[in-house]
Amino acid sequence: VQPEVLFYRSLLQVILEEKFPSTPPVEFQVGRLRKPVGSFREYLQWATKKLKLNLVLIDDEIEAYLTRFGDDKRRNLYAFFQLRLLLASLVEHIILLD
């Protein structure tokens, strides 16, 4: 999975929870991308089409979300996934040794 897509999916989840507060988060299962996307706007268009949602955000709103959840949050997310990947094999070995 591309690291940028992980950030895009997380940001999409925040937007969906803010724009559709009454819908349970489980309803927002996007799935995997078939081809790489270049920008968050492209990812947002693909995801809303796949989820069959009527969600229109202007460029200023998208920029506000990208600024709000900018580089600090992105680095934290990447660090979390790297740590998760590192620990996965360790936990698997511990389980197998048990």
Automatic annotation (TrEMBL):
Entry-linked InterPro entries: METTL25 (IPR052220)
Superkingdom per UniProt: Eukaryota
Protein name stated in the entry: Uncharacterized protein
